[in-house]
Write a structure and sequence with these properties.
This protein is an alpha/beta fold. Helix content is about 30%, strand content about 20%. The strands form six sheets. The protein has a seven-stranded parallel sheet with strand order 8-9-7-10-13-6-14, sandwiched between helices. Strands 15-25-24-16-23-22 form a six-stranded parallel sheet, sandwiched between helices. A hairpin with a 4-residue loop joins β18 and β19. α1 packs across α2, α3 packs parallel to α4 and α13 runs parallel beside α14. The longest helix has 15 residues. The radius of gyration is 27 Å and the shape is globular. The structure holds adenosine-5'-diphosphate and zinc ion (ZN).
């Protein structure tokens, strides 16, 4: 008997012999211990098959016989990796022109291959808040019933920000009865509030996967799913590989988010892997967004995906008013703030309300330049311009995280006229502190949220109204539900608009619409201010009018003309 064993390494399966006494015990999906090079390794049984042919040599002859080695032990009594998950792992390796082994490594925590069972680390969150009992409105009810009516198929749930999409997901999960579900959300930074909502609904029946977990925590979450202790896995992209056996539904919240793509190791899109898993499992999948990706909306229009729409905000709350501020007309009293924005921020604080400010670039200043010779500091390893960080007084590489200390004189011409060029979140924070000193101000970007739960704490402080103005990168635009936020602003919209990417208009539209969606969720209508040097750019008309369809029509024609995706 021959067995194909998959290891969590960048390779396809290896073939071994099965000793007679193990033949009755070994099954697909179990772990086995097998000799590997001079040592041994734990792998997963991927299938049984015929022995491989010896490699061909010149002239089409085969060179001798291959001597196969026997596996040493079968480590499980029941298959560890469910059959459908194993299929998905193989599909992923093939589809992304990678290997099944690398897909396995990505899908299963490494501790599983070291025979570890549980983790020590415990995650501590605050107490669960009581569940608000909600009656779905008619749009939500209609969407929910279409989802619950079927066993399988893909849906796009297109609902404006604050239309109650999350509530539809929660009810759809409850309606599954005994079946399990996976909910994907974009990266941990964005999930603090959603974690609370799921915990208060499903208590201990939820497992969480995010980048803040220690290896031990990851393994214990994995075993909880495996052992059937939980019904829901909520997490970032790797949660798509949760080892459920009786899956009924996959939800992808904010399906348009770029962070569903992984760019290291196995390159994959969790959205597309989730669609594949739903097919393999024969179950339903819901893609939710206020601003669907152009590709998904295109497929919904063509009828490949069923289209569900929530047109209105909960309780018919109005969409926020959006004002575009032309920065070329400003008499500059401040580097990054228009007079209008400063005055509305001041007024908002005096009324006890909160504001969000976004600039899509972290650090203090995107580069330092010698104005005598034009020298700029670059990363010696990546050739990328280094970003100045004022808190650490270093020049950081945003690719490889290495850093330099700037010198007093230009390394090239020894001149002393080095200038900060451009603005980042640290700089607009410093400037705002000087302009309105009485503000209670917090910055949220990748630098202030590195430590475990740091993001969660900022969100809590926001909820408890210890913060007047939350300022930061796109992190401030995502997913939060703060009822007292009435103003949202973009400081320098041109950063997002001018990325050299065919999706830059789409991303800008999505980002600004998401940000606008944070304002006016409570009783007072929201206002959005977008500062730009290019006020006539077509994206702004659609953002101002909350006109997704209009934007889609314009964008899809450009895509068609230039043969960009989905064409
Ligand atoms: P979305 O995910 O579409 O942005 P949410 O699901 O976060 O919207 O809903 C926005 C707010 O409205 C939340 O505070 C939520 O608790 C509340 N909400 C959702 N559905 C209802 C409902 N049917 N009745 C009252 N409040 C609701
Ligand atoms: Zn670098």
């Amino acid at each position: 008997m021959h067995v194909n064993v998959l290891f969590p390494i960048n390779a396809e399966a290896f073939t071994y012999l099965v000793p007679e006494e193990l033949e009755s015990k070994i099954k697909v999906g179990m772990r086995v211990l097998a000799p590997f090079k001079k040592g041994e390794k734990i792998g997963i049984v991927a299938g049984f098959g015929t022995p491989p042919h010896p490699p061909l040599i010149k002239g089409g002859q085969r060179r001798g016989e291959i001597t196969l080695r026997p596996i040493e032990a079968v480590l499980d009594e029941e298959p560890l990796i469910p059959e459908n998950l194993l299929k998905l792992i193989k599909w992923t390796g093939q589809y992304y022109i990678s290997t099944s082994g690398l897909a396995l490594k990505n899908a299963v925590p490494s501790g599983i291959f070291e025979g570890k069972r549980g983790g020590k680390g415990r995650i501590t969150y605050d107490d669960i808040r009581p569940v608000k009992i909600l009656n779905l409105n008619s749009e939500q009810k209609k969407a929910l019933s279409e989802i619950t009516d079927v066993q399988s198929g893909a849906f796009l749930l297109h609902g404006v920000t604050g239309s109650g999409k999350t509530e539809v997901y929660l009810k759809a999960i409850e309606a599954l009865g005994d079946k399990e579900s996976i909910v994907l959300v974009p990266e941990i930074a964005l999930t603090a509030q959603i974690i609370d909502r799921f915990r208060s609904r499903f208590h201990e029946k939820v497992a969480f996967f995010h980048s803040g977990l220690s290896p031990g925590e990851r393994i214990s979450q994995w075993w909880k799913i495996k052992n059937g202790d939980v019904k829901v896995a909520l997490g970032v992209r790797s949660a798509v590989f949760a080892p459920f056996k009786n899956l009924g539904l996959i939800v992808i919240d904010e399906e348009h988010e770029a962070s569903y793509k992984q760019f290291e190791g196995l390159r994959y899109s969790a959205r597309d892997v989730a669609l594949a898993r739903a097919k393999i499992e024969g179950i339903k999948i819901v893609l939710g967004s206020a601003t669907p990706s152009i590709e998904t909306f295109y497929h919904a229009k063509k009828g490949n995906i069923r289209y569900l729409e929530l047109k209105h905000r909960i309780e018919q709350k109005p969409m926020p008013r959006v004002e575009i501020i032309d920065m070329t007309k400003e008499d500059k009293r401040a580097l990054s703030y228009s007079n209008k924005l400063l005055s509305v921020l001041k007024e908002n604080v005096s009324r006890g309300r909160q504001s969000l400010i976004m600039l899509n670039r972290r650090g203090y200043s995107p580069f330092l330049m010698c104005t005598d010779c034009g020298y700029t500091y670059k990363c010696p390893a990546c050739s990328i311009t280094l970003t100045y960080h004022k808190d650490t007084k270093t020049l950081n590489c945003h690719y490889c995280n290495s850093y330099l200390e700037p010198q007093d004189f230009c390394p090239e011409c020894k001149g002393a006229k080095t200038k900060y060029i451009g603005i980042g979140t640290q700089r607009i924070e410093e400037e705002l502190r000087a302009l309105i000193p009485e503000l209670s101000l917090k910055r949220m970007d990748r630098d202030t949220t590195k430590r475990k739960l740091a993001h969660y704490r900022i969100v809590k402080d926001m909820e408890e109204k210890k913060i007047d103005v939350l300022l930061g990168t796109q992190m401030v635009a995502k997913g939060h539900d703060f009822p007292d936020v009435t103003i949202a602003a973009v400081v320098f919209a041109d950063v997002a608009l001018n990325l050299p990417d065919f999706r830059s208009s789409e991303r800008t539209f999505q980002l600004f619409t998401q940000l606008a969606g944070r304002a006016g969720r409570g009783d007072i209508a929201g206002e959005v201010y977008i500062q730009t040097y290019e006020p006539l750019h077509y994206v702004f008309d659609y953002v101002r009018n909350h006109d997704y369809e209009g934007f889609y029509k314009k964008e899809i024609e450009l895509r068609r003309e230039l043969s960009y995706p989905p064409f």
